[in-house]
Amino acid sequence: GEFDDSTRGIAVGPSEVTISIDNTLVLEGVNEFAAEIHQSMTENSSFTEAKFTMSTTSYDGALVVDGKNAQWRYSSSALIGWNTLSYDHSTWPAGTGHMGYGDGDEDTIISLDSNQITTYFTTELQVNTNTNISSLLVDFIYNDGAILYFNGVEIGRFNMPLGEVDAQTYAHSPTKNNQVAGVRVPGKLVNNGLNILAVELHKGHNVTDDGLSFSLTAAAIACDCKNTRQRAKRVWKRATTSTNSAPLVCRDES
Predict the structure, then answer these.
(1) What is the pTM of this model?
(2) Residue of 63, 108, 20, 67 lying closest to 215 (CA atoms)
(3) Rounded to a whole number, what is the largest CA-CA distance in the chain?
């Protein structure tokens, strides 16, 4: 919707968010990036501090989750450990591509009750970490709230309350359909071989339509740090001097 200087945001605490900009929007030469920060609606009028840092990186990554063809398992309920490789997802229905409950833009229509609050998704992916993988960059669409996990570790939370959630937890508020977001998976979480990416989507309170949307793409970012020790030191300096960790971080293997 429209925002002005009286609009307040949702209180979710300090956060780091990675977003991707379509290359069709990038001009050759100088580009301009703008951001607006809104005080939380739960804070008082003595708002005195706002922190905002940003780093940008262009990258060419190898797809490890293809948004069009990757197979996802999904369910309306999940037990403890559902977001790990040890959980048996074989009885969950499967689908590919853009998934939803039937608002007209899906590749897969989810065969569950569209009135439920929460839907759970998982996919398995193979990653070869011997190619100096520094991180995975994940781009996805969702509504209304989302929590993402990689190998059972939470890596991102969007429009959701802090703390423990369950299948009856609502998102903070309704969002537009096909909300876009992104998150970075640190290389230290990535197994050499099989990994699992899991997402839970939550409806906003009093949302009655069937407009759930979900699609996800992930790219593995590699960095060759074996050329010279000076190059590795430059990369490490870039990562450690930024308050917002840069997506490309190399191991010093020289």
Answers:
(1) 0.68
(2) 67
(3) 58
The one-letter code for the residue type at 84 is T
DSSP three-state, residue 54: coil
- Look up residue 171 and give its DSSP letter: B
How big is the chain, counted in residues?
A: 254
**Tens of pLDDT along 4-62?**
555 555 555 555 555 655 544 655 445 566 777 666 655 454 544 555 544 444 444 67
Nearest-angstrom CA–CA distance, 28 and 32: 12
How far is the C-alpha of 248 from the C-alpha of 238, rounded, in Å? 9
CB atoms under 10 Å from CB of 178, counted, come to 16
Structural contact between residues 151 and 244, judged by C-beta atoms closer than 8 angstroms: no
Question: How many C-alpha atoms does 56 have within 13 Å on its Cβ side?
Answer: 8
The one-letter code for the residue type at 253 is E
